[in-house]
Fold each of these.
Amino acid sequence: MKTTIDHELDVLLRFRDAVGEIHGSEDLCMLLYSLVKREKPKIVLELGTGLGVTAVWIGRALVENGGGRLWTFDDGRFQDSFLPQALACLEELPEFRDAGVAGDDLAGYLHKLLRLSGVAEQVTYVDQAIDLTEGVDDLMPSEVRAGQGIDMLFSDFAHGPGDILDLLALALPYMSEYSSIFIDSASTYLLSYFMLEQVIDQLNTGKLPHRFSQGRTSDERQRLLQLIAERRFQLVHLFEDKDRAQNSTTWIRVEPVQWSPPPTAKVR
Ligand SMILES: C[S@@+](CC[C@H](N)C(=O)[O-])C[C@H]1O[C@@H](n2cnc3c(N)ncnc32)[C@H](O)[C@@H]1O
C-alpha cells in the first residue's frame, strides 16, 4: 500500500516531468535534491522561484532530512511568459487540476504546489522583488539575521557578471563557513564565465575585486577582506549535454582555509 510520502513523491515526479523543462530545471532539481540529502543544510535560500521545480525538490530533501528550511523569492515578473504553459501542462495531472491551480497567479500557484507536494512546512515562498542595488539584508530570514549562516544559496534570477559580483559581495558575509553558492546559467554566459575564472582566483589570493569595494565604507571593506582571507573558494562549472540555451550551472564552494576535510567527514 502506498504511504502519504510515496504519494507525494509520485506527485513530485509527475510534476517535474510535466513542468521541469520549461525553465530547464528537470535535472538540476534532482542534483540539488541529492546534495541537500547528502549535506543536510539547515538554511537554504533560492533567488528566483520560477515554477517551483527546484524549490519543491529541495523542500522534499529537507522533509526527508527531518529538518532545514528553504526561503525562495520571486516577484512573478516572468509569470505571463511561463505560468500559462505550466498550468496547461498541469491540467493533465489530477491533483493539480482538482486543486484548481489553473485560475491562479504565481503566488496562488506556488502556495498550492508547496501544499500538494508536502513541503509547505519546509519551504517559504516570499513574493518579493530582488534588487541587489538595495542589498540583500531584507531577504534574510530572522535566523540569518540572528547569526546563523546560509548553507546553500541558489541564484536563478540573473547571471550577468555585475549581478554575480554584487551577489557574491553581498551574500558572502551571510554564508556559513562551509557552504555552496549555485548560479544558474552563469557558466554559459561567456563574460560571466571569464569573470568567474578571474575573480575566484583573486579571492583565493585574498584580493578584493574593485566592485566589492564600491559603495562600502572602509570598515565594511576591511571586514570583507578579512572574511575573504579566511576562506577558500572552489569554482566548478557544471554543464549539461542538452541542446538548449543556458545549459549550465556554476557551483562555488566556500570553505575555511584549512588542511583537513570538514567536521562532518568521517576521516580515517
Ligand atoms: C529561471 S526562473 C527560476 C526557475 C526555477 N528555478 C524553477 O525551477 O522553476 C527565474 C525567476 O526569477 C524571477 N525573477 C527574475 N528577476 C527577479 C527579481 N529581480 N526579483 C524577483 N524575482 C525575479 C522571475 O520572475 C522568474 O520566475
Note: Residues 23, 25, 48, 50-54, 73-78, 129-130, 156-157 surround S-adenosylmethionine (CB under 6 Å).
Amino acid sequence: MRDGRKQVRKYPRVNNLLLLSDPTRARALAQVIEKLAPEHPVKIVHVCGTHEATITEHGLRRFLPDNVEVLEGPGCPVCVTPTRDIDAAVKIARKGAILCTFGDMTRVPGTEMTLADARADGADVRVVLSAAEAVNIARHTDREVVFFGVGFETTTPMTAAILLDDPPPNLSVIVSHKLIPPAMTALLDLPDNRISAYLAPGHVSVIIGEYPYVPFPRDYGIPTVIGGFEPLDILYAVALILRQIKEASPKVENGYPRAVKPEGNRRALELIGRVFAPTDVVWRGIGTISQSGLRLRDEFAQFDARVRFGVTGEEGEETVPGCRCPDVLTARAVPTDCPLFRTTCTPLHPIGPCMVGVEAACNIWYRYGGRPKL
Ligand code: SF4
C-alpha cells in the first residue's frame, strides 16, 4: 500500500472458488475464531442442508473450539414436509394422475406408504428436476399432471413462474412450500433452544435478502450472519458471529455479499407474492408454525391439485416412535444422539425423514461417518 502499511487480505478473492477451500486460509481463519471465541458455550444454528454438507464433508467442526458448536435446524425441505402432504400426493397418484416431484420426496414415509411404494403399486410417479419439467410432461399428454412443489424460498419462485406462464389446463400443483424466517422465529420461541446465533442460509437469502432476519438481533439479541457454501465462507461467517458475540453487538451481517443483496431478488419475490399468500402450516417434527407456509391465491385456485382431486388435508402421523427427528430438526440433538442412527436407520432403510434427503442431517452424517467432530 502507498502509505507503507502492510496490506492484509482478510478474505480470498472470489474469482477462483478453489481459494474458498484452501486449507492454509482455513487454518488462518481458525486462529481468528479461536481468538474471538468467548469462554462460555456458543450454540450456532444454521437452517440449511448445504451448510451441513459443507461442514461435514470438509470437517469444519474440528476447526472450532470445543465450546463452539454448530447444529443444523429445519434446513431440509424434504424432512419438514408433513405426512399429510405426502399422503395427499400418494392419494392423487393412486387416482391416476402423473405425479411429478423431486427425487428425495419419493422415499419420505407417509402414513401408509411412500410415493416410491405407490409407484411400485402401479401409480405413475415421476422424478423431475424442475417445475418446468412437469409442465413439459403436461403439454405432451391428455392425462392430469400434478407437480408436488416442496422447498423453501429458493424453489418457490419456479413454481410461481410456471403458474404465471399460461400453464396447460391438465396441470395442477400440491403446494408444500415453506418460509424459513418464521421457522427460525419458532426455534427461538422454544423454551430450551439455547441458541446463541444464526448462520443464515445463503441461497434463501439470495431471494429474501437481509431484512427478514432483522427481528432476530433486534427482538431476541441473536447475531445473524448470512453465509455462503464454500468452507471458508462458513468459517468466515462463524468468525463474524463470534465477533458480534464478543462485542455484544448483535445485528444482521452479510458474509456472502458476492451473491446476496440486502433487498434480495425483487423479481423472484414479486413472482411469489403474485401467486402465493402466507398461511399457517405444519412442519414435520415441529408442529404448526404461524404464517410459515404458502397457499395459492384465489385467482390460482383452479391449479390446486387437492381441490381438483377432492383430497382433503387429513392429519397424518408426524413422528415415528424412537426417531429423534423432532429434536434434530429443532437443533436440540445431533444424529448420533439417536439410538437408531446407523443401526436400524440408514439411507437405504430410513426410519425417519432426516435420513432420507441429501440435505438431511442424519443422511449427511451417515455419508461422512457420523462423527460429531466432523
Ligand atoms: S437416525 Fe433415523 S430414526 Fe434417528 S433421528 Fe435420524 S432419521 Fe430419525
Note: The pocket of iron/sulfur cluster is lined by residues 323-325, 328, 335, 338, 340-341, 345, 351-352, 354-355, 362 (CB under 6 Å).
